[in-house]
Amino acid sequence: MARTKAFDIEEALEKAMNAFWSRGYASTSVHDLVEAMQIQRGSLYGTFGDKQTLFRLAYERYDARRQKGMQSARSPVDAICAWFRKLVEEGCAENGARGCFIVNTALELEMHDEAMRGSVAKSLSSIEAFFFDNIRAGQQDGSIDEAVDARKTAQSMLSSVIGLRVLSRSRPERALLQNIADSAVAPIL
User: Fold this and answer.
1) Chain segment 105-146, per-residue pLDDT in tens
2) Alpha helical stretches, state H, the chain
3) 25-36: per-residue pLDDT in tens?
4) Which residues in the chain are classed under CATH 1.10.10.60?
5) Angle at Cα 23 formed by Cα 22 and Cα 24, nearest 5°?
6) Is residue 58 a contact partner of residue 48, using CB atoms and an 8 Å limit?
7) Residue 24 in 3-state DSSP?
8) Where is each HTH tetR-type domain found (predicted)?
9) Does domain 8-62 have CATH number 1.10.540.10?
């Protein structure tokens, strides 16, 4: 008969996500995870497998949350502007120094970890698609000029997101982050 877990798996995964997000994969030891998750080492391995599997689960949790946050009933321009406002607010928040789990993972990736490279590429592509789809929708409803190159602008916005997230770790200055956000959305206003 299997023993019931003495801990909440979702809560433990949330704590693991926060540990990895704050420290990165390489700098987060199994000991750090056990302490953060408030579980025994055997429970970590028994429930989540190994550190790499736990990292992937934590990454997927973060990415699912990000995707849900991008869903919007707003107009295309408002959806994009709101996303950049949120990035500035998060970047200036007390815990903004952690940056973005996706961007942090992209910067830390080992070249041989093909699966994580694929996950990060998919996440970044979905952010670009969010911008592209909203730009095209805005062009269709007349709120964004047809002359705007939707693909190039979406790619530029993605680059701005990455820059904002990296800078929020070392220079969480509101004016700096706001200037970058303003420049990113300028082509669609």
Assistant:
1) 998 887 668 889 999 999 999 999 999 999 999 999 999 999
2) 9-23, 30-37, 41-48, 51-70, 76-92, 101-108, 114-141, 150-170, 174-185
3) 999 999 999 999
4) 8-62
5) 105
6) no
7) coil
8) 6-66
9) no
